[in-house]
Design a protein that fits this description.
Layout (H helix, E strand, L loop, with lengths): L1 E6 L25 H11 L4 E6 L4 H8 L3 E4 L12 H8 L9 H8 L1 H10 L7 E4 L14 E5 L13 E2 L2 H15 L3 E5 L5 E7 L6 E2 L3 E3 L14 H6 L10 E2 L6 H17 L5 E8 L5 E7 L13 H8 L4 H17 L5 H9 L1
Parallel strand pairs: 1-2, 1-3
Antiparallel strand pairs: 4-7, 5-6, 5-7, 8-9, 8-10, 8-12, 10-11, 12-13
Length: 353
């Protein structure tokens, strides 16, 4: 079997944004060489792995590689549909791939479109508006405090603790900063004061299921920091040599709330049409109801446990080793695509077909 691995690798050295939101976080979504190597190693169980960097040469390289399936972890760089480009190319060339389709990836990256879809489908999500010009702030009708973030970024890009705005002056300043920096609309949503969770999901259709729910302990953040799991918490304060003890897995919450978190996450997964895997972020509102913040159908999968990568952390709690998690995603995709189970023997048979 020939497995293509579609990825984007961080440049070395990669520029980083400072904790105050200055600097360059353009490559925050891309993966380190160590992650790409770990995924390639896991995929090697099934056959030959062909690395396919998702750059301008990807279309011709994937044609030349002739993979039986592409494991897609490519984030892309340009445009609000960048996460959809690799699967769109694969579909154009009739090459099977893992994970969600171009429509789901485009919708889920655009936080406004995500929330519109969730609201239409009756999945709880905080009241929101999208702003594409600083002058619109004065007409914003949401009750303060509010939280703001770029409309189409991931991996904590543009999500800083200072984005929690208590009044119109603070909102005006942050909206202006984000509009100028990211050149895209800004999502403004009612701040949810309750605890935050993230739920890793595996599977398709009615067989999709949740891995152990991860809860966030914001008391682990530096003193005075806003209770936000954003860029600083992901990339500045949390370091391998000094891990941030922010996660509880499984989350220690009442059983009824735990079940409601799982149900809401699965409802969001199905509402956006996710396939194979996805991580859903939620936060509880003032009424005790879990609300969906966003969906991550290209979840972070850093292999080093010290890096606090959420999907592998939840998988470990469920009994999956790192290699087993990656291999399970391939098996889920293969079953969805062919209706058959993918074993090592079956993978060998594909090569001989």
């Amino acid at each position: 079997m020939r497995i293509g691995l579609a990825y984007n690798e961080k440049p070395d050295p990669a520029p980083d944004a400072a904790s105050d939101g200055t600097g360059d976080d353009a490559f925050a979504e891309w993966d380190e060489p160590s992650t790409i190597a770990a995924v390639a190693q896991a995929l090697g169980l099934f056959g030959d792995v062909i690395r396919l960097e998702a750059d301008q040469f990807f279309p011709q390289n994937v044609v030349l590689a002739r993979p039986d399936i592409v494991f897609n972890m490519a984030e892309g760089l340009h445009g609000q549909s960048r996460e959809a480009l690799v699967p769109a190319i694969c579909e154009y060339l009739n090459i099977p791939y893992t994970g969600s389709d171009p429509l789901t990836l485009a919708l889920s990256l655009h936080k406004g479109r995500t929330k519109e879809t969730l609201a239409y489908r009756g999945v709880p999500t905080a009241p929101f508006t999208c702003i594409d010009a600083a002058g619109q702030v004065d007409r914003m009708a949401l009750t303060y405090p509010v939280f703001v973030k770029p409309i189409a970024e991931g991996s904590g890009k543009g999500v800083f603790a200072t984005n929690l705005c208590a009044n119109v002056a603070a909102l005006r300043a942050r909206v202006r900063f984000l509009l100028e920096r990211y050149a895209e609309p800004v999502l403004v949503e009612t701040y949810l004061p309750g605890p935050e969770f993230t739920v890793a999901i595996l599977g398709n259709g009615p067989d999709a299921y949740c891995l152990p729910v991860i809860g966030f302990d914001f008391s682990a953040l530096p003193a005075g920091a806003a209770p936000v799991y954003g860029y600083e918490a992901k990339w500045v304060w949390d370091r391998p040599e000094a891990p941030l003890a922010i996660f509880q897995c499984p989350a220690r919450v009442p059983a009824a709330l735990y079940r409601e978190i799982e149900r809401t996450a699965l409802d969001a997964y199905h509402a956006l049409g996710c396939r194979d895997w996805c991580r859903v972020d939620l936060r509880v509102d003032r009424f005790g109801v879990p609300n969906v913040l966003e969906l991550n159908p290209l979840p972070g999968i850093i292999p080093d446990p010290a890096m606090n990568s959420c999907f592998p952390k939840a998988a470990r709690a469920a009994g999956f080793g790192y290699d087993e998690l990656i291999q399970e995603v391939v098996r889920l995709a293969w079953r969805r695509l062919t209706g058959r189970e993918l074993t090592v023997e079956a993978a060998t048979a594909v090569v001989g077909a």
